[in-house]
Structures are given as structure tokens and as C-alpha cells.
# Entry
Amino acid sequence: MAKSNAVWGIDIGQCALKALKCRPHEKDDRQLVVESFDFIEYEKILSQPEADAEALVQDALDQFLARNEIADDSVAMAVAGTSKTRRRSR
# Structure
């Protein structure tokens, strides 16, 4: 299967997962075309003391993957720099 020239930018933020799918414009590769987006709000803010940040992010990622086909696309992710996510990522 051929690799797509589309890319998903995914932001794992404090309150929600935000995603944007872009690809180069077919006539001008210096321009991008937005093809899709997704926004999945967490049940709790990740920095709240009672929030299970790992479970909330996993649930959002599962929802994202269920709603979007990304198999042939590139993916770039940004993760919020909260102390909970830093400790768990070691």
C-alpha cells in the first residue's frame, strides 16, 4: 500500500486531544490543505489531583483512532509538559 503524503498533527493538551490532518496543495506544494480535524475533550483536566492522566489520554487516543483512519499518514505529536505525564513517560 502506498504511503500517503498527508500528516496528522496531534496535540495532547491539558484539557483535550486536538488533531489536524493536512496535505500539500496539489498545485502549490508551499501551501497546505486541511483535510480533517478532531477534538476530544477529557472528562477532567489532566493536572487535577484526582485525574488519572494516563487513562484519560489513552481513552482520547482510542476515540481518535476509532474515528479516523491514519494507517498511511504520517503523525506528529505534542504532549503537554505536566508533571504527571513526565513522571509516567520515563
About this structure: The beta strands are 7-12, 16-24, 32-41, 74-79. The longest strand covers residues 32-41. The chain is about 25% helix and 35% strand. The first helix runs from residue 53 to 67.
